């Protein structure tokens, strides 16, 4: 078996494999690369000695049985659980318009916190009607429990979740159930604990500085190989595990001044892989820029990603539901229904407008003639928007079931690709809190004190902010699977199922034309209506009933959270407080 490693600044490289040591030789055709041939099999443990120091795990190692500081293990992908032909995901060229995504965290989706336990719950998701499972990061990180955004080995799978074999089994089970799989990957930084990459080469650069320190090297000397490292990792998830798409974390934090950006390279590589394999593959960006170029095709000057999260939609909806106005919500709070209406028809609220949170103008307009609505994901809750709150409180902690139903209605019948966060479909009462398991005591204390300091600026006392390192914080964040059987939760779950089914059976609810969306609202009386072709949606956020003039009669009620009479001859309809309805001719 051939082993190779990029270590351009090292004078001598050796490999420790199953207790034996093998000298490696420089590759004459690839600068900085070292190679060696040695007998190995699935599970063989190995690492690299750099100028006699080590051994360190392989930067491209596919398995770390003992965690980021242990040796790598060889993975024979042909020996993994049978991987059935992946279920086709929505084609990247025609968009994700038929998709409904479900974001989940393997470690807290079930009490066991493993791939196999999550696979056992896939029946719940198929009954719900979602089309894709979006996994939060599963790369190896220090400790046992965490969100996954401190990963240090972009090619390896976190062992406590079940390692490579567990991920392969989960993906196969999802495909057999008719579900696509999306994986959240992080390229903008790596975690501080267990990160061995700097010892191998210039994976990081001081040319740029980020909130996490030195930037991942995408544009300085040696960046060709670093880009190749990240590109190879991304393609490996899609190729070797049958993953259908990737969610790219915080692409606005990628420091990259090259003419051909890393994101364009990645987009082209994924499209090429899709063409080679005959499988539709896609990339979904998280971006703070409100820049339509993120999802504009490369052929016309864009980055070529297939979709992006739309936080502006979330912020407007959140303000309309809760009345909150702190931090970035301040930009949306003055007239939240107007802000929501703008996002539903123009995607971005900030499209060159003043942002008080940033202290400057922000964003640029979306060309609605050329940009389909399914370039954007819409959601009322995500891991970030819940977990970045001091207590990790979901909407269900403060909103009535009726308002939760309203949030679901706007999200699932609106113009964007809907995404749910695990448990929201039944109004889970369990919080989703920020939790870590850093083995390094100094790092653990820095994270603990840093989070408390962050929220102290907003009036929180230190003892009120959950300790990320306390195992109880993670335990509180696990879903309670007895809740969906309780009446109040079961009713909301049925509402989600109904709305998803309507989205599937009514093409108007998947129409990609943003310009065709028609929205009316009353800020003072707190109601909003919108049209998607022949389908009309009514949402009353007020506790008081309202009467709304539809302008026509002869419509039927497809679904209603509260009992609803048909419009009278004058086309006026009476809507109960904190309720929603979907109508059609």
Automatic annotation (TrEMBL):
Protein name: Malto-oligosyltrehalose trehalohydrolase
InterPro entries in the record: DUF3459 (IPR022567), GH (IPR017853), GH13_cat_dom (IPR006047), Ig-like_fold (IPR013783), Ig_E-set (IPR014756), Trehalose_TreZ (IPR012768), Trehalose_TreZ_E-set_sf (IPR044901)
CDD domains noted in UniProt: AmyAc_GTHase (cd11325), E_set_MTHase_like_N (cd02853)
Pathway noted in the entry: Glycan biosynthesis; trehalose biosynthesis
The entry's keywords: Carbohydrate metabolism, Cytoplasm, Glycosidase, Hydrolase
Catalytic reaction list: hydrolysis of (1->4)-alpha-D-glucosidic linkage in 4-alpha-D-[(1->4)-alpha-D-glucanosyl]n trehalose to yield trehalose and (1->4)-alpha-D-glucan
Extent of Basic and acidic residues compositional bias: 53-66
Family: Belongs to the glycosyl hydrolase 13 family.
Organism this protein belongs to: Streptomyces avidinii
Places the protein is found: Cytoplasm
GO molecular-function terms, A-Z: 4-alpha-D-(1->4)-alpha-D-glucanotrehalose trehalohydrolase activity
E.C. designation(s): 3.2.1.141
SUPFAM superfamilies referenced in this protein's UniProt entry, alphabetically: (Trans)glycosidases, E set domains
Residue stretches making up the Glycosyl hydrolase family 13 catalytic domain: 103-478
Keyword Glycosyltransferase: no
Gene3D superfamilies: E-set domains of sugar-utilizing enzymes, Glycosidases, Immunoglobulins
Region (Disordered): 45-68
């Amino acid at each position: 078996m051939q082993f190779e490693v990029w270590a351009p600044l090292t004078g001598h490289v050796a490999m420790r494999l199953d207790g034996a040591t093998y000298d490696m030789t420089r590759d004459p055709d690839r600068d900085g690369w070292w190679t060696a041939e040695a007998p190995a099999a699935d599970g063989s443990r190995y690492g690299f000695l750099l100028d006699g120091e080590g051994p360190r795990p392989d930067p491209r190692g596919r398995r770390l049985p003992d965690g980021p500081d242990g040796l790598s293990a060889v993975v024979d992908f042909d020996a993994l659980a049978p991987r059935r032909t992946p279920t086709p995901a929505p084609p990247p060229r025609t968009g994700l318009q038929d998709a409904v995504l479900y974001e989940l965290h393997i470690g807290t989706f079930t009490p066991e916190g493993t791939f196999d336990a999550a696979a056992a719950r896939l029946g719940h998701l198929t009954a719900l009607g979602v089309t894709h499972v979006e996994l939060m990061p599963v790369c190896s990180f220090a400790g046992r429990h965490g969100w996954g955004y401190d990963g240090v080995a972009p090619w390896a799978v976190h062992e406590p979740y079940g390692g490579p074999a567990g991920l392969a089994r989960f993906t196969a089970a999802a495909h057999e159930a008719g579900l696509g799989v999306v994986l959240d990957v992080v390229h903008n930084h790596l975690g501080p604990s267990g990160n061995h990459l700097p010892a191998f080469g210039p994976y990081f650069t001081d040319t740029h500085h980020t909130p996490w320190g030195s930037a991942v090297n995408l544009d300085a000397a040696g960046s060709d190989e670093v880009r190749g490292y990240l590109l190879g990792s991304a393609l490996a998830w899609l190729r070797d595990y049958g993953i259908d798409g990737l969610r790219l974390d915080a692409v606005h934090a990628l420091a990259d001044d090259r003419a051909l950006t890393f994101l364009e390279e990645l987009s082209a590589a994924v499209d090429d892989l899709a063409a080679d394999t005959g499988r539709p593959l896609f990339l979904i960006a998280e971006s703070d820029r409100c820049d339509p170029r993120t999802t504009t095709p490369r052929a016309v000057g864009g980055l070529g990603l297939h979709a992006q999260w739309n936080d502006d939609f979330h912020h407007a909806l959140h303000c309309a539901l809760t009345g909150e106005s702190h931090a970035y919500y301040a930009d949306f709070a003055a007239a939240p229904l107007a802000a929501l209406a703008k996002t539903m028809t123009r995607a971005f609220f900030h499209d060159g407008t003043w942002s008080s949170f940033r202290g400057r103008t922000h964003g640029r307009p979306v060309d609605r003639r050329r940009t389909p609505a399914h370039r954007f994901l819409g959601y009322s809750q995500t891991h970030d928007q819940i977990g970045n709150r001091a207590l990790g409180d979901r909407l269900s902690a403060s909103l009535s079931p009726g308002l939760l139903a309203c949030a679901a209605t706007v999200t699932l019948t609106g113009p964007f690709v809907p995404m749910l966060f695990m448990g929201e479909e039944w109004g889970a009462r369990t919080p989703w809190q920020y939790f870590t398991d850093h083995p390094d005591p100094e790092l653990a204390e820095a994270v603990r004190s840093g989070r408390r300091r962050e929220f102290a600026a907003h009036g929180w006392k230190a003892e009120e902010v959950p300790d990320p390192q306390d195992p109880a914080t993670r335990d509180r964040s696990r879903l309670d699977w007895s809740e969906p059987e309780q009446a109040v939760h079961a009713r909301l779950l049925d509402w989600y199922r109904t709305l998803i089914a309507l989205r599937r059976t009514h093409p108007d609810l998947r129409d990609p034309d943003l310009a065709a969306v028609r929205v009316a609202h009353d800020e003072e009386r707190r109601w909003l209506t919108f049209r998607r072709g022949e389908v009309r949606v009514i949402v009353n956020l007020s506790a008081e009933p309202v009467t709304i003039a539809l302008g026509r009669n002869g419509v039927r009620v497809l679904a209603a959270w509260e009992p609803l009479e048909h419009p009278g001859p004058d086309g006026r309809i009476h809507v109960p407080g904190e309720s929603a309805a979907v109508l059609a001719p």
